[in-house]
UniProtKB/TrEMBL annotation:
Protein name: Nucleoside-diphosphate-sugar epimerase
Coiled-coil residue spans: none
Organism taxonomic ancestry: Bacteria, Pseudomonadati, Pseudomonadota, Alphaproteobacteria, Hyphomicrobiales
Domain NAD-dependent epimerase/dehydratase, residue spans: 5-74
Length: 309
């Protein structure tokens, strides 16, 4: 019998790649989105058009749709979203894979305890405040990591769903990356501008969209629950990324260490004042084989150099 999978938010970035991975594996796939972003899945998937943050709309949309063997939730950003998921899917799912983030460790940056193990965050003893206005746009970016951590806390403490929270490393992607972070490095090298980088050169963990999709698919096939870090082998500093971009482009990497605070505004994305990396020990112990970061980084950079179609 074919397994039934639901992907909440599966029409862009690594969500799109995950849907394709599931289809290739022979699963019956349902994609739930707001219906704003187009895709090329055609009739290969079932579709649900719904506002994921609207509890009543979610309950109506999934009423009578049966159970799912696995749900991949790319759109759970707060305990409010987690509570909606519990209301809709309690008793109806075998595994619930929440896409979380390395940013849940942001509050530990200055503690200098990297690489971060999953159990550095005690989900049993933190508080997820469902009364806080997590959906207010004023907080969506500044409290992104805190909101994701609160969603993990809510799921863990309620125990209603069999949740795996996949803490994804910083994402380096091609032109489909709506954040434009890696693109900013390409533009800098292309224009010959130097990279002003932190003298501490903090190392961090990264992943590419294809790797994330593969990791999520792998997690969906396992039996463990709880938090798990997802990243490539190896770490990168901002200077490493700058030099890798220059190498792929065949240019000289211009750079200058920043020793004072006056130039803080010109620091590039992923330039951290201390190491901000995750440990992969748990994933490895469970059988996951992570790719090396330099296996895919040159290809991701090269994608930015291709003419736009």
């Amino acid at each position: 019998m074919q397994k039934n999978a639901l992907v909440i938010g599966g029409t862009r970035f690594f969500g799109r790649l995950l849907v394709r991975r599931l289809l290739e594996a022979g699963l019956n796939v349902t994609v739930a989105t707001r219906g704003i972003t187009s895709d090329d899945f055609g009739s290969t998937v079932s579709r649900v058009t719904v506002d994921r943050r609207d509890k009543v709309a979610m309950e109506r949309a999934f009423a009578g749709r049966g159970d799912f063997d696995v749900i991949f939730d790319q759109m759970c950003y707060s305990p409010l979203d987690a509570r909606i998921s519990e209301s809709v899917f309690a008793g109806r799912v075998g595994r619930y894979i929440m896409a979380s983030t390395i940013e849940v460790y942001a509050h530990l940056l200055w503690a200098k305890r990297a690489p971060f193990d999953e159990d550095l965050i005690d989900l049993s003893n933190e508080r997820a405040n469902p009364e806080f206005p997590w959906h207010d746009e004023a907080y969506s970016e500044s409290l992104y990591g805190e909101a994701k951590r609160a969603a993990e806390v809510w799921f863990h403490q309620s125990g209603i769903l069999p949740v795996v929270s996949v803490r994804i490393g910083h994402i380096l992607s091609g032109p489909d990356d709506f954040t434009g972070r890696l693109r900013s490095y390409v533009d800098r090298v292309s224009s010959g501008r130097p990279l002003f980088y932190s003298i501490n050169k903090g190392k961090s963990s990264f992943f590419n969209p294809a790797g994330i999709a593969d990791f999520l698919y792998w997690a969906g096939q396992q039996t463990f629950t709880g938090a798990i870090n997802a990243c490539a082998n190896g770490t990168l500093t901002a200077l490493d990324i700058h030099q890798a971009v220059a190498s792929v482009m065949g240019r000289e990497a211009q750079s200058e260490p920043m020793t004072g605070i006056s130039r803080a505004a010109v620091l590039s994305p992923y330039d951290f004042p201390a190491d901000y990396a995750m440990s992969s020990k748990r994933a490895i112990s469970l059988g996951y084989k992570a790719p090396d970061v330099f296996q895919w980084l040159p290809g991701v950079i090269a994608a930015h150099l291709k003419p736009a179609r």
